[in-house]
Amino acid sequence: MRTVVPVSGAEPKTRLSPVLTADERREFTEAMLSDVVAALDAAGRLPDVVSTAPIACDVPVTVDERGLDALVNDRLDAADGRLAVVMADLPLLTAETVDRLFAPDTDVVLAPGLGGGTNAIVSRHERFRVDYHGVSIRDHRQRAQKVDATLTEVDSRRLAIDIDELDDLAELLVHGDGAATDWLRDAGFELVVDEGRVGVARD
Question: Which DSSP helix (H) or strand (E) runs through 99?
Fold first, then answer.
């Protein structure tokens, strides 16, 4: 089964623009992608990286400027529904977590994100297709039900935490130990505690 890793190579992570320049956001995105690719590789899953623009990566990158739904659904069509999708902004991912994602013997496996998104999917059903707009985890549950697919959801903090907002950087500094965490520390980010809440500041 192929494992697609979609990444936004054009203007990535714009919600981090208050603290990172455009060049820094690209470098940080590449570091997170490196962590995801390393985890998949360690789990024996060859990642198929697809980016909206050229991006630096340790494995070959296919450039595809289309939106996420069209990109993934075309690949599901070509693979008769047998495809895994893992987002590129999951730098806490480990080989053990990847194994947990692929372990359930059901037609569809979903990994919810903390904000209602879908951070990873394993599909083994010929009629299952994706829709990443809105509250996608809810929509993907409904789509699995509509095609009579058996479904499992993987409850995993490492799969749930995708890095989009400033507050997400604290999770990475607390729990991460890969290239993205190193990049943040080298860029001067550190943990701060304010009235009992953990956040980040840049030196």
Answer: helix 95-102
